[in-house]
Amino acid sequence: MQYLSHADQVITKFFYQLLPHTGLLNSFFSFLSLYGNSFFIWVLIATAAIIFEEKRHPGIQKRDIKFALTFVISFFTTSGLVLVLKELFQRPRPFVLHIVKAVNCNFDYAMPSGHAAAAFAAATVLAYFDKKRRWLYYFVAILISFSRIYLGCHYVSDVIIGSSIGYLISSITLFLSTKIHK
């Protein structure tokens, strides 16, 4: 575990130093980070997807209810698991250990990234129900996840693990909802 931690510190520091930290990029990634973990922003994105879908399939469909339930269950299950894992691992953030400087970071624990988990949980459900724009949802999730490394709030592994948790929880929720609704 100590080797992994050292490798993670080296990789995170490398990425942090490789990227230019300008006022514009700091503002852009701070904006993504501020709203990326928020249930509200993902509800707005989901609402936009529903509006686009409404043009093709007017009225409330069984599919719409399945989407809403799956979205909410995935998002909150992911968020709950992340909180439990943060307390379990209690990994300090990179800026706390003075590995990198941080911009707009929380002071709680780092492992796993809640932003990455929430972003990938939401993107996975959205992509399942709106395959035409799935690239957009995953692109936003990747940007939000990357913002956490850029801002110095997370190690690379925190983001990879958080992203994986969000994706897996949503995939399991989608699988179960398909089995239940048959």
Number of domains: 1
Quote the beta fraction: under 5%
Radius of gyration: 17 Å
Helix count from the secondary structure assignment: 7
Into which percent range does the helicity of residues fall?
over 70%
What general form does the structure show?
Answer: globular
Low-pLDDT ranges: none
Keywords, separated by commas or semicolons:
182 residues; mainly alpha; 7 helices; 0% strand
What topology does this entry show?
Elements: H1 2-18, H2 23-36, H3 39-56, H4 62-89, H5 114-129, H6 134-150, H7 156-180
Question: How is this structure best summarized?
Answer:
The chain has 182 residues and is mostly helical.
Question: What do these coordinates show?
Answer:
With about 180 residues, this protein is mainly alpha-helical. The chain has one domain. Helix 4 runs antiparallel to helix 7 and helix 6 packs antiparallel against helix 7. The protein is globular and about 50 Å long. The model has no long low-confidence stretch (mean pLDDT about 80).
